[in-house]
Amino acid sequence: MNEVTLIGIDLGKHVFHLHAQDMKGREVFRKKLSRMQLIPFFSNLKAVTVVMEACAGAHWLARKLDTVGHQARLISPQYVRRFVKSNKNDYIDAEAICEAASRPAMRFVEPRTEAQQLLAALHRVREGLVTERTATINRIHAVLLEFGIVVPLARATLRRLPDVLAVQDSPPRLIQLIHRLHAHYRYLDQQIADVERDLTSQLHEDENAARLLSIPGIGTITASLLASEVGNVTQFAGGRNFAASIGLVPRQHSTGGRSVLCGISKRGDKHLRHLLVQGARAVIQRVEKRTDRLGEWIRSMLTRRHSNVVACAVANKLARIAWRVLTRHTTYDAARLKLAD
Fold first, then answer.
1. Last residue of a domain, one of 185, 205, 225
2. Which residues form the Transposase IS116/IS110/IS902 C-terminal domain (predicted)?
3. Is 109 part of a structural domain of the chain?
């Protein structure tokens, strides 16, 4: 039997399909293992490179495989799809993962630590709670509007909503329904505050995240998400590569020697890109008060480009600054900012 050098795993909830290859790319074996059998199987196997798609459970499994002596590598699913041969099943998917990982120029995803995953989980929970809170506010507004009651959606008004309804000539059952929705809104608001408090406490424990707070337009939420999503920043060759990984660079459609640049690619983490763009808009709103080189550059851009284009350009710049701050283990210094790259 040939010696196994590479194993591709097609991940599942309860069952995992394995495809093993030797150093020449020839199949050695195929196996189907349950979740209970997976770790014991690799514990008794000679150290090899194990590759899987970067999806649910992949980072946890990568850490487990590293502890038993294997080299775990994660690959983006979009790079695996093109290597699937005709018909699709779980074994063919595992084989395609091996084929993709064998390419010398293939890009891999850095496995996250447990702390980074916890931060990412907090952000996902907060994002879901914020969406649900917004839906509840809109629901209150819509129900009242059906009865001719217009209430501003400001948070101050929502806090004293029962007092506002008390002076209205409204049906008792309507008031009871609004009280129920208002109690749900207050519960969600408190849950969001608790999650943000946890994020802030973890942020002060993370040295890298604390450095990010020195960058204009980056606050607690964005800094903690950057710390959890970026992982090992040395996986990116430069700030441009990091900005490209979150979709803040133009999408190319060039051919025949003619360069065609479209809008931003919008690849990578949508939530992180959204926070960086919103942070950039906050910087732009106060750009008249800035006397550094960043302020001069933004004012120059605003004279010739639309504010939305400038916001994406500033977000791109913030992403590059964040990469440099993390790689150089320093804080933001406006005097050393380079704007030509």
1. 205
2. 210-290
3. no
